[in-house]
Amino acid sequence: LDNLLARGQAVPMLIVMPNGYPSDEGAGGTDDGIEQTSRELLDEIVPAVEREYRILASRENRAIAGLSMGGSQAFVTGLRHLDRFAWVGAFSASSIGDRPEAKFLADASIKARLRLLFLSCGTEDPRHAPLLTFVERLKGGPVNTVWFSTPGVHEWKVWRRSLFEMLPYLFRS
């Protein structure tokens, strides 16, 4: 982010990275785990950030993104709460095209509420083909979708590149 800011390629922003495991059992990828993580984010983390930092606290000034299990959590939470998030990113997320929330993306009214859906994955990741199929289904639809594919497996270098590619899109008109 510092490099993008120095080059004028991103706007200043605060990045918050919570732990996506709502329990010791690591159930963050289950439907219940996603719901628990979403509640923690919306009821505890966002209000705490808004209390502690001088930020623009509106949906237009709030994005949600995650990687792997967190990508699925971000996808579901973001689409369920478009009153709170205008920008959604999912990096190497599993099975999001099969989630009930994916049906929202065909609704023409979403264009006014979802500024960006950013999806990415490493080319050697087993999630790549299903995500690419999902992106193809979204083409021509109402959602502004950006697909970023980069060499790699399910790993940090892919997610760092994905974040670097997504950040310049955020919070711009």
Summarize this, please?
With 173 residues, the chain is of the alpha/beta class.
What does this structure look like?
With 173 residues, the chain is α/β, with parallel strands linked by helices. Helix content is 35%, strand content 13%. It contains five helices and four strands; from the N terminus they run H-H-E-H-E-E-H-E-H. It has helices spanning 2-6, 31-52, 69-80, 128-138, 156-166, and strands at 63-67, 87-91, 116-122, 145-150. It has a four-stranded parallel beta sheet with strand order 1-2-3-4, sandwiched between helices. Helix 2 (31-52) packs across helix 3 (69-80). The two termini are 19 Å apart. The relative contact order is 0.14. The mean pLDDT is 94.
Mean pLDDT: 94
Order of helices and strands: HHEHEEHEH
The span between the termini is: 19 Å
Kindly estimate the percentage of residues that lie in beta strands according to DSSP.
5-15%
- The helicity comes to 25-40%
Number of strands: 4
Main beta-sheet strand count, sense and barrel state: 4 strands, parallel
Shape: globular
From the alpha-carbon coordinates, what is the Rg to the nearest angstrom? 15 Å
Strand order of the largest sheet: 1-2-3-4
User: DSSP helix count?
Assistant: 5
Class based on secondary structure composition and strand pairing: alpha/beta
Uncertain spans, ≥5 residues at pLDDT below 50? Answer: none
**Assembly state here?**
single chain
